[in-house]
Design brief:
single chain; 217 residues; alpha+beta; 434 Repressor (Amino-terminal Domain); Umud Fragment, subunit A; 2 domains; ten-stranded mixed beta sheet; globular
């Protein structure tokens, strides 16, 4: 069951307190375990935002979903790990669950990764590639043609280290890109796009390595 008011920091703070009480842990113990400031929840209650990675730490510690803390669902039950959740389709094909971010990554000018992007959980056929994948993203743009096209869905393994020549999902100064890793640059496969040069002052990290595509239709 979904509630109407979303992303209200005071609601997030209240849900954290409620779940902490249910788990028998004090807010001080929770924040210490998550290595967060002792006033984090108090600031939330007053309207301060929280980084998504810190909210995820709290959700993991409280054994609940981030959606519950955000007020997107009334159930604190966490989503199942796709590595463990296996079912069968009507035709008998083994299925597994993967998180799906519909439009988080750009094969063009860049887009925000994960922040403000609703997450879905989808059933996909269980095979060697989907077993290695940690999430699915949808491609936006044409800079990675002819290998990846606008609207393609790619399987991503959450590897933080990627080798030159491999294709990954990169977060550069807050924007995300699907690109090939080069020497000091991110490279497009479409020759119409110039490489993105990387500098010492850039903030860049790899969100994962692209390991294949999947048809969700």
């Amino acid at each position: 069951m979904y509630v109407q008011q979303l992303y209200d920091s005071s609601i997030i703070a209240n849900n954290i307190k409620t779940q902490a009480k249910a788990k028998g842990i004090t807010i001080k113990e929770l924040l210490t375990k998550c290595q967060l400031g002792i006033n984090t929840v108090s600031k939330l209650a007053l309207g301060t935002d929280i980084y998504s990675k810190n909210l995820a730490k709290i959700a993991d510690c409280l054994d609940c979903s981030v959606d519950y803390l955000l007020g997107r669902t009334n159930s604190p039950k966490p989503y199942p790990s796709h590595k463990q959740a296996v079912s069968r389709s009507a035709s008998g094909v083994k299925m597994t669950i993967l998180p799906f971010y519909r439009t988080p990554s750009s094969a063009g000018s860049g887009s925000i990764l994960f922040d403000d992007v609703p997450i879905e959980y989808i059933n996909v056929p269980k095979n060697a590639e989907t077993e290695k994948a940690d999430f699915v993203v949808e491609v936006r743009g044409d800079s990675m043609e002819p290998q990846f096209y606008n609207g393609d869905h790619v399987l991503v393994a959450a590897d933080r280290i990627i080798q030159a020549g491999e294709i990954g999902v990169f977060v550069l100064d807050g924007d995300s890109f699907i690109k090939k890793m080069g020497e000091g640059r991110l490279i497009s496969l479409n020759p119409a796009y110039a490489p993105i040069e990387l500098h010492e002052y850039d903030s860049i990290q790899c969100a994962g390595k692209v390991i294949g595509t999947i048809n969700l239709q």
